[in-house]
Amino acid sequence: MIQLISINKDFYNGKVIFVQPKKENLLESESQFKESGMTPYIIDEDHLTEEMTSVAKGLYSYILKRKIKKSDVLLVTHQSFLKHMVNMGKITNDYYVVFDEVPQESFGEFTLSLSTNKDILLKYIQTAPSKNPDFFVLKPIDRVQMNTCMTAEGEDEINDKLRGLFEKLLDEKHYTVEIRKGVWESFKKNKRNGRNNVSFITHFYMLPEIFDDFLDVHFLSAKFEESDIYHIFKELGVQFVEKKILKLQYKEHKNTTHTFIRYCMERDFSKTMRSYKCLNQKTIIQNILDISRLNMSPDDKQLLVLNKDMIDGDFKEYKLPQNSELISSYVHGLNGYKHIHNITFAASLNYRNTQADFLHDRFGLSYEDIDKSFLFSSTYQAICRTSIRDKHDDSYRLITVPDYRSAVYVQEVLGIPDDRVSSLENFMFLPEQKQSGGQIKTHKQTKELTELKRKTKNIIISECKAFKDFYLDDENRFRINLLNGVSTYEVAKYIDFKEPEDILDFFENESKFTSNDKHKEGRLAWCCLLLSDRNEVDGKKFGAHNNHGYTCLMFDKDSSETGEDLSFLDCASWFRKQGWSFFMYETYSGKGNFRVVLPLKHAITCEAHELLTKWINKRISTEAGKKGSVFKWKENSMGPFDDSKFNAAAKFYLPNHSPERTDYQTYRYKGNIFDPCKELKGKDIKVPEYMCQKMIGLTTHKKKIYERIVNPAINAVLNTSGIKQTHDELRDKKCKEQQEKFLLNKSHDSLGELVRKMTFWERKAEILPFVLMNYRNTEEMKNECEGWVRKYANMVTCSEKFKWK
Q1: What are the pLDDT digits (tens) for 141-153?
Q2: Which of 25, 75, 274, 792 could form a disulfide with 20 if both were Cys (CB 3.0 to 4.6 A apart)?
Q3: Can you tell me the distance from the alpha carbon of 491 to that of 435, in angstroms, rounded to the nearest whole number?
Q4: Confidence (pTM)
Q5: Could you tell me if 344 and 305 are in contact, meaning their C-beta atoms sit under 8 angstroms apart?
Q6: What pLDDT is stored for residue 550 in this prediction?
Q7: Whole-number Å distance between alpha carbons of 502 and 552
Q8: How buried is 67 (Cβ within 10 angstroms: 0-12 exposed, 13-18 middle, 19+ buried)?
């Protein structure tokens, strides 16, 4: 970076600001700039002259009073830049800013716990609409009144607590502060926590306007596209451009043929876990420190990365490993450790759950991206302080990280093969992982079992809620897979649907199908998100463990063995009374045998599917037909429907009847779409004990739900239900489908939809040639098409949505 600025001094013409994380970075850079013939100026608290009574005055003096030379370069820390330089106005309009690493102030959280009542904040703060309907933007009621609270530190205890929040609220040009609507309403009602305090959790994020008064801003950072600032700014409409003048030295590591990665545990490491006692009576962090030097000789030096609170402590609680250079977890840009080959990263840098949830809910970041932006980014930066930063140094090196997820990330960015990644968990003596809800072996106490069932039901509902905003592509939300065969399968094709009613349209249209073959190939439907690779549980390709979410409920009614049979008419009447949209059709077997198709508002988990289908089956058994009737498929069944079809592997044949049949029955009713989350909350839906046992240890935290529910569902979608396509083939297929729709209905609106779809599927360059060739080759059409292209220029593409590489 130093060389890049030095080489391009004619381009910058003495008007470049180099911004680095720490003062130590500035001192390193000062020396290197001088060696390159540049004239560096450091302005911070340690480099003030007699004329400079403060950092702010020093910066103003530098910009306004010095005689500019092409070799000039101003060196400031992130903190000084964000505190002083962003407020200097138009005098910096012709200055270039070069950030060494992204600033940490792009996003943060304020958690206040006040023993006083809510009025202390309500008299200063008001709410305004946010672009996200689940949040409020917070603003000062009276800026002058709020500014009177900015007293000197230590002068007023309450003002000290509010200072950070009020600073961001007063700086409306550069930051926005938002709060969840539910948190705000609870706060207004003066709801108190366990300590009898009023809790107030809010978040701030940096605005792109903070850089308005500079000519150009460059971010020099490995994995910049994984940073918070990149994700937030992009969501706010910023379009980043890669500047060729500032190309990085190299984009991949080729000096890792002797590099090995070890991880200490499979479970995710956290600050809370550091003090947990292991079976050898040592804490988890102490065991990590002890095993960090496994397979190292006494002369081998290692970098040891710990959290700041541990470094600031006196280490009476911990025994540090020998020959270890201790550094903080925030080591961006430091170059003084290139002679050290080995590193142990033992810091825990997880965002709080509330922070991760805000980024996920407000800006749509996946929890995987959130981990990458903070924890993984810091891990990678620390590793890059070692000899690995010298591309000519391919020494034997050991990289030790605390958990498996960190190892997977480091392995990916460094390109390390699997045979050089290993676990040290056997040396950790870890205690049994704590289970949510306690370790429950037997359930003699009804109260204990009732509470476990309640928790399990909440988990199932929370998992289903995660599907509310789930999309297969840019518009479709539901999928039906059509399989070949009876006992062995392959996917003949899959069909995606935008709206729930579209599924009923499909079945209604298929009810016209006739055949002399009851088991006609390609007509066995599985309404789910299917991943047809062999699963790791039972090795099947089309079993229950391959189902990652049901997209529709279906019921199969065969002739009853109990003597009292539910008729087609009684069944249709019962479903209609519920007010749900549904479709019914007779099976190939004829009278008395039929199926019911019940579309959903959104996809659901397999557990939810089981609960809902069994609940409906039980209800209809006594509520349909004449009073006093009880309909059962078999004597020990709960209702009239085939109870073997309530499991996650259940498949159903599409409508099919012989060509000779003239009395084939179907029925379609358009009502309200079945809301699974609403119905699951009902008291008469009971969770069985075996399902509770299966879900012990799971939580309702959004990040964990995303990992175990949404990620596998996305993976199922991307594998296109076993129909093997490359990403390019899928892009071409989707674009061709939209082109065909456009050719059938050429209009201004359909042109906009064509541009939107082809932009999403990353075929933007093909839009204009296609339109001019197939519509009108005129200047007016060219301008209209280019207008649509500009409108959708910054939209999320398929690669970004599905995390394609």
Answers
A1: 999 989 988 888 8
A2: 25
A3: 39
A4: 0.60
A5: yes
A6: 95
A7: 11
A8: exposed
